[in-house]
Amino acid sequence: xxxxxxxxxxxxxxxxxxxxxxxxxxxxxxxxxxxxxxxxxxxxxxxxxxxxxxxxxxxxxxxxxxxxxxxxxxxxxxxxxxxxxxxxxxxxxxxxxxxxxxxxxxxxxxxxxxxxxxxxxxxxxxxxxxxxxxxxxxxxxxxxxxxxxxxxxxxxxxxxxxxxxxxxxxxxxxxxxxxxxxxxxxxxxx
Length: 190
What we know:
This protein is an alpha/beta fold. The chain contains eight helices and six strands.
């Protein structure tokens, strides 16, 4: 089953308008509400604090054909006043050299603490930036230091024996686009 994450400005506002069943999991033998997962399917559930909670744990649901969607707060959207403003900044060509400016870099989500890596690989495309985002996840850190053309051959290959967290290609590209959106706002709005 595909893994779908939807980033929103205000998760609570969105979910209050929708009829969803909240995903659940066990923590120390206590049933907990998953921090982001919801179901739009009609599945076995119970009510708790005005929320419908799934009886089926999220890690078992997929095997039963139940499709979880993660609705995630993304506070980067707080920087923008409208969808039109987002579209405008996404339409601009990024000033890739600005990623090397420590003052700009520290304002960018996900990569602010990776100045050396940004300088070493100096991304010049969405793909390059997505690769850096994948490299900083534990499951792909072993590729750091290799030439970019070698990394491109391995970065999106799923290693079945890998226990460490990796970024899926779709997630890495989405996060890269968010970074570019913010980079463009910081560099074009001055």
